[in-house]
Amino acid sequence: MKKLISLALALSMALTMAACGNTGKQPSNSGTPNTGSQTTSGSGSQDTSGSGSQTPAFVPERDITLVNPYEAGGTSDIPSRIYADFISQNMGGRLMNVNCIGGAGGAVGAQEVMNSNPDGYTILVAPAGYAMNYAKGGLDWTYENFEPVCLYVTSVLAVAVRSDSPYQTYQDLVEGVKANPGKVNMGISTGGLPQFSVYAMEAHDDMKFNTVDIGGTSVKATELLAGRVDVMIDSLGGMQSYVESGDFRLLAVFADSRHPAYPDVPTMLEIGFTEDETSVMSQVFGIWAPKGTPAEAIDYIAGQFEAAANDAETVEKLNAQCYTASFMDTEDYLGYLEAMYASFSDFAKTYIG
Questions:
Q1: Is 1:346 a contact under the CB 8 Å cutoff?
Q2: Which residues of 173-209 are buried (b: 16+ CB within 10 A; e: fewer)?
Q3: Which site among 64, 124, 194, 249 is 20 to 30 Å from 92 CA-CA?
Q4: 84 near 76, Cβ under 8 Å?
Q5: pTM above 0.90, yes or no
Q6: 30: how many CB neighbours lie within 10 A of its CB?
Q7: CA 291 to CA 146: how far, in whole Å?
Q8: How does strand 323-328 pair with strand 157-162?
């Protein structure tokens, strides 16, 4: 299967390894640069605050709406609001407002933005799950139907069970599922990135979960807590409070290296998965605008997200929630998307048919 071998992928996957709760410094992992300094040419040369000597070509005359296509308080909502709070302080009295429009695995919010005026005032939080859903035939549009702006944040997916679960390790889970095919309930959100992770897990160990569509992070967590599902896959950011409280136990993380905040939790690579199998498990979020949005508006928005990604306080807030500021400018992000969609397509052919 074709892997994401571009520099963009290597950067985004490496940057997901910032420690939860790290306040100020980010850990050094195999020479990974600090995400607070991931600047690029292009939009970064623009004075995004409008207060410097260089006046940006686009100056917002009203508030900008950032559409989060999932539920409030979920994996995509938390970092989006952290970014929006910073950006709102630098828009000359205007605000960036996060509007949650969930439904159909994120497709409803995407359609809302797709059909909006391409004037720079409506933008979309775009998860990697869109590429997955397109690859398996669930969507008939791609990033090419939008104007990609930038990549801005990454997270780490993990497998979790309740603390009183009989599954103490990932291998325990595998053995339990193989002994009871189709009876161990896996909570997923149809159309989300964890769904592809389940496909890879089932194929790798020749096992079959009973997948239960229970919506986004806030719903999955309560369903696992109540025992209505036996296991779930979600971002560390979405599950952190439950892990820290002792309600959930992590069995594995989808990362190249052990997570600094959870050094006792093995990675899927350690467990025996190949890079081909894990190449679609990197949870990244970008910003898309409606097709036809002027280049000057794209540059302005990208510049605002870059400024936020370089702000120490913003980085600290993200790290505390197990997210990583991972800015990638428009040109590099376009290359990343092209490679990601190709990789997901190859994955779907291999694991779904």
A1: yes
A2: bbebbeeeeeebbbbbbbbbbbbbbbbbbbebbebbb
A3: 124
A4: no
A5: no
A6: 8
A7: 4
A8: unpaired
For residue 38, give the 3-state DSSP assignment: coil
> Going by DSSP bridges, is the β-strand pair 157-162/146-155 parallel, antiparallel, or unpaired?
unpaired
Whether the CB-CB separation of 268 and 9 falls below 8 Å is answered with no
Render pLDDT for 249-304 as a digit per residue (tens, 0 to 9): 999 998 878 888 899 999 999 999 887 777 667 789 999 999 999 999 999 999 99
Using CA atoms, how far apart are residues 308 and 5, in angstroms rounded to an integer?
27
The token pair that represents 42 in the structure block = 């292009």
> Regarding beta strands 122-127 and 283-290, do their DSSP bridges make them parallel or antiparallel, or are they unpaired?
antiparallel
Whole-angstrom distance, CA of residue 53 vs CA of residue 163: 56
Write out the two tokens for 163.
Answer: 């603390």
**∠ CA 251-237-306, rounded to 5°:** 135
Measured between alpha carbons, how far is 43 from 307 in angstroms, rounded to an integer? Answer: 10
How far is Cα 290 from Cα 110, in angstroms, rounded to an integer? 9
pLDDT tens digits for 306-333?
999 999 999 999 998 889 999 999 999 9
**DSSP string for residues in 146-177:** EEEEEEEEEE-EEEEEETT-S--SHHHHHHHH
Look up tokens 């928005």; give the residue: 301
